[in-house]
Amino acid sequence: MGELGATMMIYPPGWTTLPVAIFSLTDRGNIADGAALTIVLVAMTLLLMMKLERIAKRLGQK
Fold first, then answer.
1. How does DSSP classify residue 29?
2. Domain segments of the chain: what residues?
3. Which of 1, 6, 25, 62 has its CA 20 to 30 A from that of 14?
């Protein structure tokens, strides 16, 4: 079982995670909206990784 399968099994009713929303959109043939959400997910991940790298560098210099 992959990450998406595990997420789909445990997310609570009334909530939809971003990966599940992307899967649902692309599964229904709505590729453009799925791609847009994918870009949002990648951008958020990239920004978080950049922030964590800055923090790690700052802590390493002390």
1. T
2. 3-61
3. 1
